[in-house]
Design goal:
By secondary structure, the chain is mainly α. The protein is 80% helix and 0% strand. Helix 4 crosses helix 6 and helix 5 packs across helix 6. The model has no long low-confidence stretch (mean pLDDT 79).
Length: 103
Amino acid sequence: MKEHAVRDRRQASRLDIDDASVHQRLGELPSLDSQLDASQTADRLRSVLDQLPVKWRTAVILQYRYGLTYQEIADRLGVSSNMVKKYLAQALGHCRRRMAQWE
């Protein structure tokens, strides 16, 4: 019985390479090149973020990673919400320029 169960599981786990659904699922997998590109882009972005002044970087992280509002960020940084907007605008402009240099 045990051997039959093992054999049945093995047969069930095999894929028919000629099956259209298998080809479709394989086509949906991200290519290795796109995974490498995404990894390199993330590394570059980390490097660019490290170049930012501390308050700019903190504002970016608090908004985009943690979803805080301008006022919540302002309270944490001890500045006005208008200053947070300026930090974010300056930080994003810097990031865009630096990321464009690598492309």
